[in-house]
Amino acid sequence: MKFGVVVFPGSNCDQDAVDALELMGQPVVKLWHKDHDLQGCDMIILPGGFSYGDYLRTGAVARFSPIMNEVIAHANAGGYLMGICNGFQILAEAHLVPGVLLQNNSQQYVCKNIYLKPQSKEALLTANLEDRAYRIPIAHGDGRYFADADTLARLNDNGQVLFRYCDEAGNITDSANPNGSLDNIAGVCNANRNVFGMMPHPERAADPSLGNTDGRLILEQLLTMVLA
């Protein structure tokens, strides 16, 4: 399985994503935002960072980068695509996943380890994960997930909620919600379940030298998609 990590001006987690995937023995290439060639990649990663300085809304400018034409076509053709943090914001701006990411309810940038719990048994990213809390870092100022009531109902009915914020014991509570996200939502997928977005950073918890490999367990689910 060949991965492509898109690099926008202001991306700062692209190398983290590359390192995590290479640690898993996967071939990875970086794709520059002005390119028009996905180089035969099976799965595209939109990494975290501050694309275009987060001007306007987070992800709003990056959504119109030249390479996004190919990324959107790839996703619409059933190709796999994952956005992490700023990448999730870009997916939302491109309407590749439902909902929006708003400013944290604290109005502050939050950078810390949190816990999240897999929710969907239909989406390949989470279907085979253990039903437990995973410790994953977050680093964002605009991570508050929001969708209208009809959209939220569809997400729940269709198994499109990937993760919810929880405490260490796996309890989904208001106090475990780090940014005020609706229904503690930390990640969602599209209706076809081939586009995945999440605010926490699994690539930052994938190397044993960091003392936490919960993120690698999530990223390893990507490898099952090529066999699906």
UniProtKB/TrEMBL annotation:
It catalyses: N(2)-formyl-N(1)-(5-phospho-beta-D-ribosyl)glycinamide + L-glutamine + ATP + H2O = 2-formamido-N(1)-(5-O-phospho-beta-D-ribosyl)acetamidine + L-glutamate + ADP + phosphate + H(+); L-glutamine + H2O = L-glutamate + NH4(+). Its main location: cytoplasm. The keyword Ligase applies. Its EC number is 6.3.5.3, 3.5.1.2. Pathway: Purine metabolism; IMP biosynthesis via de novo pathway; 5-amino-1-(5-phospho-D-ribosyl)imidazole from N(2)-formyl-N(1)-(5-phospho-D-ribosyl)glycinamide: step 1/2. The active site is at C85, H201, E203. Gene3D superfamilies: 3.40.50.880. It is found in: Cytoplasm. Keywords: ATP-binding, Cytoplasm, Glutamine amidotransferase, Hydrolase, Ligase, Nucleotide-binding, Purine biosynthesis. InterPro entries: Class_I_gatase-like, PRibForGlyAmidine_synth_PurQ. HAMAP family: PurQ. Part of the phosphoribosylformylglycinamidine synthase complex involved in the purines biosynthetic pathway. Catalyzes the ATP-dependent conversion of formylglycinamide ribonucleotide (FGAR) and glutamine to yield formylglycinamidine ribonucleotide (FGAM) and glutamate. The FGAM synthase complex is composed of three subunits. PurQ produces an ammonia molecule by converting glutamine to glutamate. PurL transfers the ammonia molecule to FGAR to form FGAM in an ATP-dependent manner. Part of the FGAM synthase complex composed of 1 PurL, 1 PurQ and 2 PurS subunits. This is Phosphoribosylformylglycinamidine synthase subunit PurQ. The gene is purQ.
